[in-house]
Structure formats: structure tokens, C-alpha cells
């Protein structure tokens, strides 16, 4: 297969997801799961500019997890313009904290480590979540640092 043919095939892909990598130990698992859903995706540096996401034709963003705190002075940088693109964005772990903080929420600390499963409510009126049941069981891990 020539490079030209690969580029032409990528042009034909309609569903494209950018994974902004914040250091998730499960980044490749996230990537594989998205690809298993017949969606093309790439793991990109966390500071990828919003303009590059638009230029490359992504129509969804996943912000991965990572070991950092959103309140740390050396918290990883991202382009806040990604939140102005009108694309669906899924935050996983640290990525969810970034979204929460970006929109005026707060992130609290827990005294004890907690791991387990918890049910969350999903707004499945969104195109990104339309095929999901309104209640999803997810994994929860947090710890005092």
C-alpha cells in the first residue's frame, strides 16, 4: 500500500477522535477501545493547539488521565480553545478534572484512597453518547497525595 493510498483512506474516515495525552497509563487501551468502535483516533501531545484539531478534521476529543493535580503549579498545559470548538469532549480521570475546572467547578481532596465502581448518569441526548444507556457503571480511583 502506498502512502498516497493511506492518506486517501484517512480522508474517507468520517469519525475521527483526538486523544490529548496527559500521561495516562491506559492511553493505548483508550486508543484501542475507540478504534474497536470503528472510529479513527490518534494520541496527540496534551498541548496540541485547537487549530490543529480542526485542521486535521477531528470531530471528538478525549482528554486522558494522568498523575497530576489541576491545582499544581506545574500542571500540564493545554489549549483552552479546545473548549470553544463545539466538539464533544470526554475527560477521563485528570481530563475530567480539567473540564470541571475549566467550567468553574472545583476538585476536592479525599483523606483516604478509594477504588471501586460507581454509577453515573449520562446525557445520551448528545451525539457522542447517543448509543449509551443513561446510567453507566464506571471505575473510580482517587487518593490523597
TrEMBL record:
Domain of life assignment: Eukaryota
InterPro entries assigned to the protein according to its UniProt record, in alphabetical order: Class_I_gatase-like (IPR029062), GATASE (IPR017926)
UniProt xrefs under SUPFAM superfamilies: Class I glutamine amidotransferase-like (SSF52317)
UniProt keyword list: ATP-binding, GMP biosynthesis, Ligase, Nucleotide-binding, Purine biosynthesis
GO cellular component terms, semicolon-separated: cytosol
This protein's record includes keyword Ligase: yes
Glutamine amidotransferase domain location: 19-142
Coiled coil feature spans: none
Pfam families: GATase
Keyword ATP-binding among UniProt keywords: yes
One Gene Ontology molecular-function label: ATP binding
Name of this protein: Glutamine amidotransferase domain-containing protein
Organism: Panagrolaimus davidi
